[in-house]
Amino acid sequence: MSNYPTPAGSSALAERGVSRQYLTFTLGGELFAMPIEQIREIIEFAGMTEIPLMPAFLRGVINMRGAVVPVIDLAVRFGRERTEIARRTCIVIIEVEQEGQMLLLGVLVDAVNEVLTVEPGQVEQRPAFGARIRAEFIEGMINLDQRFVIALDIRLVLSVEELATLIGVAAEAGAVTAE
Q1: pTM above 0.70, yes or no
Q2: How far apart are CA 87 and CA 130, in angstroms?
């Protein structure tokens, strides 16, 4: 597909009341958004290598210009059914920081929609209840006229520490069942 430019320092600008850009995508029929600051690339789904004994949210790995990139199934991360691969399925490549090092993670989504420029007044507080994902995963609700789009807090959704803990638990469970 295409690369989306990432404006430098835009998260700091958003805190000062300046507009911010979000990539919108669908997942299980729902519309979500994530800030574009950490997005490096969006690629069409062309397959991946599955890794045995990993938790369901870690669908596999892809080779991206010689780098091994883990691919997270966002639907499973949210406690939903596995994403069905279809014609518009994409992998959003996101850069996350862990211990001062930048890591690439792929996020599997049903389809990428568009980049929105959102004014600070369009972002509402996250709901205390009613969302079908963990509340801490929600950065806020983007108000688009008559509907809301869930803006994700990618740092928490893709917390490398939490994902590593979950992978460790799955590996231990796999070792126990293999005995």
Answers
A1: yes
A2: 31
